[in-house]
Automatic annotation (TrEMBL):
KW rRNA processing (keyword) present: no
Keyword annotations of the record: Oxidoreductase
Pfam families membership: adh_short_C2
The name this protein goes by in its record: L-iditol 2-dehydrogenase
């Protein structure tokens, strides 16, 4: 097979991407990047209505972008989400599996309720979104399909205050590998992205929790983690887009079962 470059703005032409947890932050940034590369996008999140930023993006791309409310912890809502997405833009050929929540507490204080909340979204929800989209791809004969699961550098190591979240992201990395092996005979690739510390709205919550448990002034944890990154800063949602486009495109046709670190050098593997 001879490699031929694809025009930069057409790398995802003809693809229909379903993005969960994408009303803002990294998910919304990736949706915008996919649109720029010629994809049609179904964006899902918990809110009853699209965020103002997403509404503005829909206005720019009314024939290529729409918003769907969905709770990924509810199997029936996942089914309805996939059906609604396919009814608008045809079979889903790319999944950006991004819906997740964060919480933390000292190990001896973290309770069953916290465990259940985190695993319901980050593991159970992510797995069944992936499973149901993969089944949809097989039913519709999608070849060259791609799944990108959003893991985290937290899935590469444990942290004393973040046990459940770290474990949930480690589970998603493992599911990525298993699903990739199961789907390889069908020509469908499954990969992951492990971001490092990314400056999104969620970091306001993260910083406040670290301030509480590590007795820090507000903003100090965020400053410290940014300074500790080898490249010298926190990531931005835009920093995730290159990897997300690459893994969705034919340029990654021989890449599967991998979780790519996009973390400024925090993790080396």
């Amino acid at each position: 097979m001879t490699w031929a470059p694809i025009p930069p703005a057409q790398r995802l032409r003809g693809r229909h991407a379903l993005l969960t947890g994408a009303a803002g932050g990294m998910g919304l940034a990736v949706a915008q990047a996919y649109l720029q590369q010629g994809a049609r996008c179904s964006v899902a999140d918990l809110g009853a209505h699209a965020t103002p930023e997403l509404v503005a993006l829909i206005a720019q791309h009314p024939d290529a972008l729409h918003y769907l409310r969905s709770d990924v912890t509810q199997a029936a809502q996942i089914d309805a989400l996939i059906d609604a997405a396919a009814a608008r833009f045809g079979p889903v050929s790319t999944l950006f599996n991004n819906a997740a929540i964060f919480d933390m507490a000292p190990l001896l204080e973290s309770d069953e309720a916290m465990y259940d909340r985190i695993f319901a979204v980050n593991v159970r929800g992510a797995f069944f979104v992936m499973q149901k989209v993969l089944a949809h791809m097989l039913r519709h004969g999608v070849r060259g399909g791609a799944v990108i699961n959003m893991a985290s550098q937290a899935g590469r190591r444990g942290e004393a205050l973040v046990a459940h979240y770290c474990a949930s992201k480690a589970a998603l990395i493992s599911y990525t590998q298993s699903a990739a092996l199961a789907m390889a005979p069908h020509g469908i690739r499954v990969n992951g992205i492990a971001p490092g510390v990314v400056d999104t709205a969620m970091w306001t919550q993260v910083d406040a929790l670290f301030a509480r448990y590590e007795n820090l002034p507000p903003g100090e944890k965020k400053r410290r983690v940014g300074a500790a990154v080898p490249l010298g800063r926190m990531g931005t949602p835009a920093d995730i887009c290159g990897a997300a486009v690459f893994l969705a495109s034919d340029e990654a046709a021989y890449v599967t079962a991998q979780t790519l670190n996009v973390d400024g050098g925090n993790v080396m593997s």
